[in-house]
Automatic annotation (TrEMBL):
The lineage of its organism: Bacteria, Pseudomonadati, Pseudomonadota, Gammaproteobacteria, Moraxellales. Pfam families: ABC_tran. Transmembrane segments: none annotated. SMART domains: AAA. This is ATP-binding cassette domain-containing protein. GO terms for molecular function: ATP binding. Gene3D superfamilies: P-loop containing nucleotide triphosphate hydrolases (3.40.50.300). Residues 106-129 are annotated as: Disordered. InterPro entries: AAA+_ATPase, ABC_osmolyte_uptake_ATP-bind, ABC_transporter-like_ATP-bd, ABC_transporter-like_CS, P-loop_NTPase. Keywords: ATP-binding, Nucleotide-binding. The keyword ATP-binding applies. It comes from Psychrobacter coccoides.
Length: 316
């Protein structure tokens, strides 16, 4: 079952509608993002991305610097809105059991469009559309209140540079995302304590972020994201700032947590070894285009082009 589905998503930065359409027309003719930038002055973030992320999968997004990874992940919590396309999310999916959907947790104020879209000659697109859950909503159609609710109840993010609030203690940082829930401080802190335990930091609740190592700070960041119990976890180069040994430990911990939690995780990395280790499937971006999605084995044995093959060869 698909949890998140990007349908024909394109993003042209700093261009109005007409300007963006010009850039999109050049991309449709096959021009690459560097040429489009040279010819029009506009940066291509993404072009015509069709991607289905399954419920409960750990899906890596890979690519060189500037290929569009951050642009893609930021669409999923709508930190960025696309120039074109739709983003479908099944907000009824429950993380602990992704197969189970609960209609009571639907984001309100959302439009639902379960009608199949027009037939398309692209087989990948057709397959993705057929799999779209009937209860998926186009998150671009959410009004402000529904978007706020979507962000609070469906999606959490772990950042590369941790994003902890320096003047708050560890436990206050972890409990921060729960402040909008109707809970007492002691209830919030109890949940935060549980998640600090889960990430292996049981005795540091009264410390401040700058008293912790980078690895510990990122464990706090992870605990904060998990404490909200949201089914979708977005991780933007979350382990890239860490030393190799600590990074490997956090990768192991993430895999161990994922075994139990069954989140839908979108994990950005530019490191193929990390992608192969943690990703059930990997999507490879190049110049804002999605080149290939597959399991590590599929990418290794059937690379779509030289770019993918070079990534897979570079794996240590
Ligand atoms: N705010 C912005 N304004 C203009 N162009 C942008 C903006 N953000 C990203 N871009 C451009 O969009 C393209 C994709 O950038 P993005 O940051 O998504 O790539 P990335 O793969 O995450 O790169 P990195 O690994 O370096 O973070 C790049 O050409 C970048 O210059």
């Amino acid at each position: 079952m698909n949890h998140i589905q990007l349908e024909n998503i394109s993003k042209i930065y700093n261009a109005n509608r007409t300007q963006a359409q010009r850039a999109l027309a050049l991309l449709a003719e096959g021009m690459d993002s560097i040429e489009v930038k040279e010819q029009t002055g506009y940066s291509v973030g993404l072009y015509d991305i069709n991607l289905a992320i399954k419920a409960g999968e750990l899906h890596c997004i890979m690519g060189l610097s500037g290929s569009g990874k951050s642009t893609l992940i930021r669409h999923i919590n709508r930190l960025i809105d696309p120039t074109d396309g739709k983003i479908w999310v099944d907000t009824t999916i429950n993380a602990k059991n992704p197969a189970h959907t609960d209609s009571t947790v639907r984001v309100k104020g959302a439009t639902t469009d379960s009608q199949p879209t027009a037939p398309t000659p692209d087989p990948h697109k057709a397959m993705a559309e057929n799999e779209k859950s009937a209860s998926a909503i186009n998150i671009l159609a959410l009004n402000d209140k529904a978007l706020q609710q979507y962000r609070q109840q469906s999606v959490s993010m772990v950042f590369q540079h941790f994003g902890l609030v320096p003047h708050m203690t560890v436990i206050q940082n972890v409990a921060y995302g729960l402040r909008v829930r109707q809970m007492s401080v002691s209830e919030r802190h109890e949940i935060a304590r549980h998640w600090l335990n889960e990430v292996g930091l049981p005795n540091l609740e009264h410390s401040y972020p700058d008293e912790l190592s980078g690895g510990m700070q990122q464990r706090v960041g992870l605990a904060r994201a998990l404490a909200t119990d949201n089914p979708i976890l977005l991780m933007d180069e979350a382990f890239s700032a860490l030393d190799p040994l600590i990074r490997a430990q956090l990768q192991d911990q993430l895999l161990e947590l994922q075994e139990r939690l069954n989140k839908t995780i979108v994990f950005i990395t530019h490191d193929i070894d990390e992608a192969v280790k943690v990703g059930q499937r990997i999507s490879i971006l190049n110049g804002g285009r999605l080149v290939q999605t597959g399991t590590p084995n599929e990418l290794r044995h059937h690379p779509a082009d030289d770019y993918v093959a070079q990534f897979m060869c570079a794996k240590s």
